[in-house]
Amino acid sequence: MYHRRRTIALCFLALAAAASSVNAQSATPPATSDVPAIRRWLDVQSIHAASRFRWIENSAERITASGIQWQTQQRGRFLFDRAGRYHVGAFATTGSSFVSSWNNTGAGIGTFARPFALRHLYLSAEPIKGLEFQAGGLAINRGLLNEHVAYDSDSYMVGERVTVRPARGPVPQISVTAGHFGDIRDTSVFNRFDTMSDVNYGQVVANFRVGSRLTASLDLTHEDGRDIIREGVHVRPPQGTKVLTLLKFEAYQRVDPDEAQGFNVGADGAIGKLAITAGVMHVDAAYGPYNGDRYETGTRYYSLLNYPLTSQLSLQLYHTRAFNIDFPIPLRHRLDVVAIFNPTAALKRAGVF
Fold it and tell me: What is the pTM for the complete model shown?
């Protein structure tokens, strides 16, 4: 443990030293007088709070959740240089597990809960434009896949990552990650740093660009004894297409030690200010509990509606129902009504940070 903490401390010192030697050409233009001084050091990427009513029925037609939950999340970076090529990134959220970022309020089923922890904390260095090194508590790279058949959007791990972003060509990004996957009930990154040397996770993700309307990703993952291949393809319709904005085709194949497959076929659209996502998906019984908690296992259809009431407040309606299932599942039918308050942009315009 002592040696791990010493290594992390040395990484901070090395990062600070590297930042001090960054070429002046990498700096952004000088700050104007209306930009707060704190922005030189602190990049607040998101601050939001949310509340939702959640109703869940399992495959035995028993209601397992019916109540109001609360959530708060903060994401940001401490910058060593003006361009942000050397920084410490952090993400903190409510929730008590790998797939949970919500706490019960006590209204409805469940008692009041208050877990809140720093899940991601990592060092990042980009000594050459397009070449980035990261180490620490990281979000899992999902490529183009959403949380339906990959990992929950609040997922976490500890390890190291190298990302290459070529300036030109059909491969805009390649990412290689190694580290420790697990501790799904221990949300605090500080309790997981000691497991960085216990490497049980390896991943290579490549993104591809084909023309102006098609993007794709290929993910090869070794996850604590399992080997999984994932593919994602996104297609944007021709300019001028009404309502439809994106088509998504996503799949996985678990190839070792057991074999199984899953998929997600979905679409995004918009009618005025109303954003719509809908699709059909399948996740095998032994996949989880790692993908999004809104989806879990089984074959299901789903829909998500999002409507901005103001620039800071939006409402969401989510619905899913499983069908043609031949194994017990905890989520057969679900309805969420969500209110999200995100004042980040307004606070930046006001010069708070």
Answer: 0.87
